[in-house]
Amino acid sequence: MAKPILYGADYSVYVRIVRLVLAEKGIDYELVPVDVFAAEGIPGWYVEYHPFGRIPAFEHDGFRLFETSAIARYVDEAFDGPPLQPEKPRSRATMNQIVGMLDAYAYRAMVWDVAVERLEKATPDDALIANGLRQAATVLRVLTSLKAPGPWLMGDRLTLADLHAVTIIAYLLKVAEGQNLLAEFPDIQTWWNHIAKRPGFADRLT
Question: Where are the domains of the chain?
Answer without folding.
Answer: 5-78, 89-204
